[in-house]
TrEMBL record:
Annotated region described as Disordered, given as residue ranges: 118-163
Keywords: Glycoprotein, Metal-binding, Signal
PANTHER family, sorted: BLUE COPPER PROTEIN, UCLACYANIN-2
Biased composition range(s): Pro residues: 123-156
InterPro entries: Cupredoxin, Phytocyanin-like, Phytocyanin_dom
Signal sequence segment: 1-19
PROSITE patterns: PHYTOCYANIN
Domain Phytocyanin as annotated: residue spans: 21-119
Organism from which the protein derives: Sesamum calycinum
Species classification: Eukaryota, Viridiplantae, Streptophyta, Embryophyta, Tracheophyta
Protein name as annotated: Uclacyanin 1
One MF term in the entry's GO annotations: electron transfer activity
Pfam families to which the protein is assigned, alphabetical: Cu_bind_like
GO cellular component, one term: plasma membrane
Length: 186
């Protein structure tokens, strides 16, 4: 009976350990002018299965664009357009995705976001940040960090997922607890 209880607990706990993270773009500021989305994204780890949640008022919008359109703040050929706020964007594949506000001059005022999506786990994006640098010799646009080396990723322990070491460590922790329970009961 004890092993059955432990098995049922394992089944109930396992999905929670792999639950997707919903990243509220811009944190409490939301999707708005005056927010440095490069700084915000550098403190996040984006993984396949996570979601981006854009919250904004009627003066803004969200479009997914190519890297070149991101760098030039062009919304003439969007990859994807989204319905009004709140907008949830599932991150379904690895790679870098680019988002801008297509409203008049909002992108050039910094309403642009690049996220690098990893396969999973708690490792930071390879570049140490999520906003790409412009090519050498091209002028930097507002909201895009300079082409100098990016700052290191946030230290371990900075963020809710880091408290328990990320998704993989969380699952390992649950497994150890369950093994201890089965050992004591069985």
């Amino acid at each position: 009976m004890a092993k059955l209880i432990a098995f049922v607990l394992l089944l109930l706990i396992s999905p929670a350990a792999y639950a997707a993270t919903t990243h509220t773009v811009g944190g409490s500021s939301g999707w708005n002018t005056g927010v440095n989305y490069g700084d915000w994204a550098s403190g996040q780890t984006f993984a396949v299965g996570d979601n981006l949640s854009f919250t904004y008022d009627g003066t803004h919008a969200v479009e997914e664009v190519s890297q070149s359109d991101y760098q030039s703040c062009s919304s003439s050929n969007p990859v994807n357009t989204f319905p009004p706020s709140p907008t949830t964007v599932p991150l379904t594949a690895t790679g870098t995705r680019y988002f801008i506000c297509p409203r008049s001059n909002h992108c050039s005022q910094g309403m642009k976001l690049a996220v690098t999506v990893s396969a999973g786990g708690s490792s930071p994006p390879p570049s140490g940040g999520a906003s790409p640098s412009p090519p050498s010799g091209s002028p930097a646009t507002p909201g895009t960090p300079p082409s100098t080396p990016s700052s290191p990723p946030p230290p371990a322990g900075s963020g809710a997922a880091s408290i328990l070491g990320g998704r993989n460590s969380l699952m390992a922790g649950f497994s150890l607890v369950l093994a201890a329970v089965v050992g004591v009961m069985g």
